[in-house]
Amino acid sequence: MNKDKKIKALVVGDDWVKTKDLIEATKRVLEGYDYEIDSFDQVMDKPMSREKKDDIGDDSVTEYCGHPQELISRIDGVHLLVVHTSPVTKQVIEAGKDLIAIGCCRSDAVSVNVDAVTDKGIYFFNAPGRSVEPVSDLTITFALALCRNILRADRYVKEGRWAGDLNREVPSWEEYETFRGLTLKNKKFGVVGLGKIGRKVAEKAAGLGMDVQVYDPFLDKKILGEYGTVCTLEELFVNSDFITIHIPPVESNRGIISKELFNKMKPSAYFINVARGEIIDEEALIDVLQKGKIAGAALDVYYTEPLPATSPLVKLDNVILTPHLAGQRKDVSEGSASILEGTMKPFFQEDSLATCFNSAEIKKNK
User: Fold this and answer.
1) Which of 9, 120, 148, 262 could bridge 80 with an S-S bond, Cβ 3.0-4.6 Å?
2) Are 281 and 262 in contact (CB under 8 A)?
3) Which residues belong to any copy of the D-isomer specific 2-hydroxyacid dehydrogenase NAD-binding domain (predicted)?
């Protein structure tokens, strides 16, 4: 990039990744340039469910907050657009006639029409791996909490049942004994999807002495074999004691974890989903849980978010439910902005495309 060129940036943060943190990151990216920054806060007006039916004129932008018109009204003359959850549709890209680069501080570019960005020769930067540690931590935490019956045991103590059982004339150990759980060592831990998060989960599970089973049809078996025993998806569901899902929310993955697969699980097995709700057949999961065909589940994501109070899941004692918090951490705002800064900086400071998401495709199109 020519530092003699004045750069106009539009920066849009929200409640999760603050505008002020994105502005500070953008300033460091543009150090040495003559620049001006316009900004506004995106209102997180609804859950980022992929089931939203809003007509924003671009079906490829599926997980977002706000409306593209908010960007369109300010995009004139903008060279660099920096966003988090704002929808960067084909209409936004068409209106941004001076756009050179777009930065989105998310791992998956579900709020940006990357194909349209690439067709226009605009360089796109994202924040890969920003959720690797918190999501993998929660996955392992779920496995431990499930197999050791942590939440049920917690209620047992807080509701006074422990004291009541032991203070009887003849102490009762009946409920207490139901909290006896599995040890993780040598248990088969199935990981579906070996992206950055799946690999980290596999490493942490192996560190606990678990026998890791892996499935990812898009990776070479030699690479997969570095993380565990390579299986088919069916083999993984048949043999694993724990199954965790780490695949992207693309259309081809919708409902891929089917009724047939759930029915192949061991009665003693546990299911974990911290990816996206629409990847699984939620009704089929509810069915096997209600009938006791599997031991339990831990879910952070759902087909409809927030999870309706009428969902059968909330009444099940063998399920742990959390409110789509896997990727959240105390420094989510500063951390996300910092990762995006790291991918954009080489382009603006070194004329390097090494960290650009779509540079190879742009090169092909030229």
Assistant:
1) 9
2) yes
3) 141-326
Residues 212, 294 within the same domain: yes
CA distances to 59, 89, 143, 264 from 55, in Å: 8, 11, 39, 39
Asked if 307 contacts 286 with a C-beta cutoff of 8 angstroms, the reply is no
Catalytic site includes residue 324: yes
Q: Which of 276, 278, 282, 341 is catalytic?
A: 276
Residue 276 bears catalytic tag? yes
Output the domain CATH number for residue 229.
3.40.50.720
Query: Does residue 307 share a domain with residue 165?
Result: yes
Which pLDDT value is given to residue 47?
62
Q: Which two tokens stand for residue 222?
A: 């030699």
Contact 109, 35 (CB under 8 A): no
Q: What is the structure's pLDDT at 4?
A: 83
Strands 80-83 and 229-230: unpaired
Judge contact between 210 and 226, C-beta under 8 A: no
Tokens 């924040």, residue located:
127
Calculate what percentage of the chain has a pLDDT beyond 70. Answer: 98
Residue in the structure block whose two tokens are 């409640």:
15
Scored b (16 or more CB within 10 A) or e, 151-171 reads: ebbeebeeeeeeeeeeeeeee
Question: How many angstroms separate the CA atoms of 78 and 97, rounded?
Answer: 8
Count of domains for the chain? 2
Catalytic residue among 70, 133, 305, 361: 305
State the average pLDDT for the chain: 94
Residue type, 273: N
Query: Which residue range(s) make up the domain with 355?
Result: 7-130+330-365
| Lookup: tokens for 256 | 């891929």
Tell me the C-alpha distance between 183 and 144, whole Å.
9
Give 36's pLDDT tier (boundaries 50, 70, 90). very high
Query: Is residue 67 flagged as an active site residue?
Result: no
Specify the residue for token string 């724990």: 242
Angle at 303 between CA 297 and CA 308, to 5 degrees: 85
